[in-house]
Amino acid sequence: MNFIFDLAMQYRNAAALESYYDGRSADLAWQLLFASASIIVLNIPLGTFVHTRALMVAISYVSGQLSPPGTQTSLWGIISFPVRYFAYALVAIDFIIGGKDAALSALTGIIAGHLWWWGVWESRALREFGTAPGWLRALIGTPPPPGPAPGAPGGSSSRPRRPGAQTAGYNWGSGSRLGG
Predict the structure, then answer these.
(1) Please, is 89 exposed, middle or buried when counting C-beta atoms within 10 Å of its C-beta (0-12, 13-18, 19+)?
(2) Quick one: which of 19, 42, 120, 130 is 20 to 30 A from 158 by CA?
(3) In sequence order, which residues have a C-beta less than 8 Å from that of residue 179 and are 6 or more positions away?
(4) What is the rounded distance in angstroms from the CA atom of residue 166 to the CA atom of residue 111?
(5) Which residues fall within 8 angstroms of residue 129, CB to CB, at 6 or more apart?
(6) Is-contact 59 66, C-beta < 8 A?
(7) For strand 72-75 and strand 79-82, is the pairing parallel, antiparallel, or unpaired?
(8) What is the pLDDT of residues 13-23, one digit of tens each?
(9) Are 94 and 106 in contact (CB under 8 A)?
(10) How many Å from the N-terminal Cα to the C-terminal Cα in the chain?
(11) What is the pTM of this model?
């Protein structure tokens, strides 16, 4: 049951995060590789071998930081709170269910997610590193970016917003009324 819950949550958070990359799939893949490598390195002293939960926490952290201010989420339909704190709630749940070791492993996801969000979206420290190399663009089939990376000088703001953008799901358009 836990695996199904994690899989569904991973899909939801990855879909929400993907909406901020608007046609830059290679950049998202590059940053996911960076987050994955960071999680593996941070988990070496802990001696953990399964890092899927930490990756889910990292994706939740970045997705929450990029979401519009005031966006709410629900945990199992029981508790509603700001989406920015969702990753911390996951670490707290890991602490309650799995103990200190599970929480420490999940906390590495918050650290990797914060490095990703701060380095690529918020500061100018790792802005160049946030753009995928040419070999990955060619592998994925993503054209080179038309301009500077998000938040770079001359680029868009550090928190990209598309008019009418959703944080998850699809915009199917207005459609046509049946029988009209």
Answers:
(1) middle
(2) 42
(3) none
(4) 26
(5) 34, 119, 120
(6) no
(7) antiparallel
(8) 888 888 887 77
(9) yes
(10) 45
(11) 0.71
